[in-house]
Every structure is written in structure tokens, then in C-alpha cells.
Amino acid sequence: MKISHITGPTNLSGEVKISGSKNAALPILLVSILSQEPIELHNIPLLRDILNAIKILIKLGVKIEINKRIYLDTKKIEICTIPKKITKTIRASIWILGPLLARFGYAKISFPGGCKIGHRKIDLHIFGLTQLGANITICDNHITGSVIGKLKGANIKLSKISVGATITIMSAATLAIGNTIILNAACEPEIVDVANFLNSLGAKITGAGSRKIIIQGVTKLHGGTYKIISDRIETGTFLIAAAISNGNIICYNTQPEMLTYLLKKLIQTGAKINIGNDWINLNMTNINPTGTDIITSPYPGFPTDMQAPFTLLNLISNGISIVTETIFENRFIHIPELKKMGAKAIIKNNSVICYGVKQLNSAKIIALDLRGSASLILAGCIADGDTILKNSDLITRGYENFYKKLRKIGAKIKNK
Ligand code: UD1
Question: What is residue 240's predicted lDDT score, i.e. its pLDDT?
Fold first, then answer.
């Protein structure tokens, strides 16, 4: 377990270049095996989850070259089995199942791992693939799927909005015979990016970004070059870094239109926001933020991945505010750690009541999930004294060069 020493309080101000989106790059890498021709990907963030997705592709036999860009040769895939050693590291590993079934008619993967932020079931992925004609069994922690002939297009209504299941069904249906309609689909920008990527290879997907996605099956995909969107969660995390520290920050290489709801909420806290085509400026100089209620919900609502950093902002803001989490059941695991730092919070069912305090104190804390760990690192930056954060490399799973970027805007962090 790595340990970080964070010395505060600091003012986090300056410029940050935002990386490519983790949650778009992960599925794009994995669904790339639907094509058998060379693919070149730009703006891939080189973080731990991505390296684990690359391990999955290598295990299958994909040839990969990383050189700022990523080149994939997916022609020769020798096996369709992914062992637990690899799948346990990332939830996203489930996204290889649909493409393997669509291209080869067979797949066996171990159950996906990832952050322990809730039950994180995969029933909707399995339901969608079954509707497309796959036969799926789950036994001894393994998911085995087979298809007689090819997958067949179907009308699929999801009982719950799921980013993961929408991507599984959309990607598998790309090579199915006939048309597929997904109803109650997730609308996240990352889903639009996966659809745009697949369309750039010859897929016929329309409606991505709405609750109804239509996929006209094609017989094969060609190769191509694609640039991944920027990371809206990384952008939001850095905006909050400035918001909690009376800072003034410019995030560039980002896409402001993907952060509309978060920006609206940040303005309610008192932040001054300016935006350009590919940058956002948040200025909280000489402003004491005001606690602001949030309720997480699927896009275009408030993103659950921004809940932990925004809760931190509320915990040091004026007044009482309520944060309600509706997507995952166990996403407040960072709260007891923040309380060790002097935060005043009460968890009631799926809400946290935040009683803003003027100053957090340093403490010995532990990072337990990805987005919670971002919030703890930021808390260390504004707390008075030396905070010792255990398991501090958890952040490298989902943020590219997080510590380096934070130091550039004034954080004092030593990693051991
Ligand atoms: C993705 C993101 C994650 C984000 C989440 C919601 C990646 C790698 N992860 O996760 O960062 O927080 O979207 O925006 O992109 N569910 C089921 N059955 C299923 C699938 C999901 O019940 O088969 C439930 C989940 O337990 C959860 C809800 O649906 O309560 C939403 O999950 P989902 O949108 O699928 O999230 P992920 O794809 O896991």
C-alpha cells in the first residue's frame, strides 16, 4: 500500500490539461475487437484501468503498440477466455463479452471486479445479450456465452438505465443480423463516443445520446483512426480543487457542453465560471462557497462520479446541504475518513447531511474507492497540517498523472 503525505492548506490555482476520458477509452479499446482491421486511437489516458484493459486485449492475441497513440491489430484473436487475474482488476472487463460473442460466437470470462461502491450486478448485460440470441450460463464465478450462428437484432427495453449494459448491447448488436432497438438506454457522452467510434468503422448506430438507440447490423467493420473525448470527471475534479481552496483554475483540452449540470451547481455554490470552446475557468478567489444540495442521477443529471468531490465542497461550505446518491448503494465510504479530518456529516439512508465547517484538520486516512480517493486527496490539500493518506495509488486507476497535475497547481504532496 502506497502512502502519500499531503501538506496543507494550499491554494490550488493555475492551468490543467485534461486527459482523454477513461470511461470512453475503456469500452472503445474493448469493443475494437469487433473490427479485424488496424485501428489507431488518440487521446487515450495512460492510467491503470486502461493498462488492465490492454492486458485483456493482449491476452486475446491483439497486437498493440503504444506510442502516444495506441495502434491495435485485432486480426488474429487466438482465445476467447479471460481469467479472473485480469477481470478482477476492472469492472469494464464485462465489455469484452458482447464483442467476443458477436465476432466469434463464444466467450468465457471471469466475473468483473472494480470499486466496491454497490452490488454492481451484471443482469442487464446478460439480459441484453440473451435477447440478441446468446446462450449464457454463470457458474463458479465464470460467465460463459455461446451463439448458434450469428447474434440476431431485437427490441430490448432496459428495466433500469445502465451505462454498462447499453454499451454491451449496442456493441454486440453492431454485427448482429437485422436491427436492434435499445429503449431506456443510458445517454452519457461516453456512450455517444463509443457509438461515434463504431460508426467511424462502418457501424450503423443512430440515436446514441437519447433514450432510444437503433443499431442496424452490418456484416463487418473496417479499420480507422479515432480521437477519444476528454474526461468530464477529471475536469470536474479539478474545478472542485479550485472551488474548495479559493482557487482560480483553467481546465483546457476539455468539452464544457458535457458538464452543464455540474457547472450549474458550481455557480449555485458561488463560483464564477467562464467557458470557451475547449476550456473552463472557475474562480473562487475571495468567495466563501455556499452549501448546495445535489441528487445524483443518470446523464444529463448530476454524475454519481462527481458526488464524492462535490460532497467535500459542501463539507467546507457555508450552511447545511444534502447530498443524495441514487445510483450506487455504497458510495459514501469516503465520509468516515473526512470525518476524521473534522468534517461534520451525518449519513441517513442514501443521503449525507453536510454541516459546513470553516477548516479541515490533517489526519491519517485511507483511500477506499476511486472517486472517494480523489476527494480525500483534495481534502488533504486544504486541511491544516500533514495528512497521511494510505492506499494513495488507488487514484492512478482512474486519473492520469493526478499528483503531477495537482503539484503543478500548488499542492504539496510527497508519495512514498
Ligand atoms: C459506469 C462508469 C462509472 C459510473 C457509472 C454511472 C465506467 C467504467 N464506469 O459504471 O464510473 O459511475 O457508469 O454513471 O464507465 N446495474 C444493474 N444491473 C446491471 C448493470 C447495472 O442493476 O446489469 C445497476 C448498477 O448496480 C447501478 C446502476 O445500474 O446501480 C447503474 O450502473 P451502470 O450505469 O451500469 O454503471 P457502470 O457501467 O458499472
Answer: 98
